[in-house]
UniProtKB/TrEMBL annotation:
One of its GO terms (cellular component) is cytoplasm. Residues 5-70 form the J domain. The keyword Metal-binding applies. GO terms for molecular function: heat shock protein binding; unfolded protein binding; zinc ion binding. Keywords: Chaperone, Cytoplasm, DNA replication, Metal-binding, Repeat, Stress response, Zinc, Zinc-finger. It comes from marine metagenome. Signal peptide: none annotated. The keyword Zinc applies. Residues 132-210 form the CR-type domain. SMART domains: DnaJ (SM00271). This is J domain-containing protein. GO terms for biological process: DNA replication; protein refolding.
Length: 216
């Protein structure tokens, strides 16, 4: 039995845009997803066919190969086979939904010191996952302390130069024949000291507040 044309499987034209391809797949995924059709072999097969068609047409290189050579060209490419996993395509098209919200893109190298990761657990129903939704969440965020304006010093006082390191942020330590340089243990490398810390932020200059963001 010959395989159905990928464009026909998704019910779209051959000149469809990437957005139209994704929209068509979402519609079919919503209709035939195994969670909505438990034990229905026909729906599972249609979901599998839609998944295969989407994986081919959503990739520019694979789509070009398919447009030129059809299914024969796809069979010659590695990585198109494998077991059927209903969750694979959801990861493909919905995996970027929260990927960059907290600046946690995998594999990215940073020269500056990064902050701590934030994790927020959300429960989405199938309709939200397929068609999308806008959800507001509250996340903890460090902001500048208002009373001390971020300085960490009590109102009416100021930040002073660290007397331990004379403002350098590091000190020299003699160990045997060697002189080592290490971070100042008093100011922790800032080169400054706070004689009278702000009571609101305990001298840190920052306070934690909840920030509301919208996720689409």
């Amino acid at each position: 039995m010959s395989k159905q044309d990928f464009y026909q499987t998704l019910g779209i034209a051959k000149n469809s845009t990437d957005a139209e391809i994704k929209k068509a797949y979402r519609r079919l995924a919503m209709k035939h997803h195994p969670d909505r059709n438990p034990g229905n072999a026909t729906s599972e097969q249609k979901f599998k066919e839609a998944k295969e068609a989407y994986e081919a047409l959503s990739d520019p290189q694979k789509r070009s190969t398919y447009d030129q050579f059809g299914h024969a060209g796809m069979n010659s490419q590695s990585g198109m086979g494998g077991g059927f996993n209903p969750g694979d395509s959801f990861n493909d098209i919905f995996g970027d939904m929260f990927g960059d919200i907290f600046g946690s893109r995998r594999g990215q190298q940073r020269n500056t010191q990064r902050g701590s990761d934030l994790r927020y657990n959300l429960t989405l129903d199938l309709e939200q996952a397929v068609f999308g939704d806008t959800i507001k969440i509250n996340i903890p965020s460090l902001t500048a302390c208002s009373p001390c304006k971020g300085s960490g010093a009590k109102a009416g006082t100021s930040v002073a130069t660290c007397q331990k390191c004379d403002g350098r942020g590091n000190v020299r330590v003699q160990q045997g024949f060697f002189t080592l340089q290490q971070t100042c243990p008093v100011c922790r490398g800032t080169g400054q000291s706070i004689p009278y810390p702000c009571a609101d932020c305990n001298g840190s200059g920052r306070v934690q507040k909840n920030r509301t963001i919208s996720i689409k």
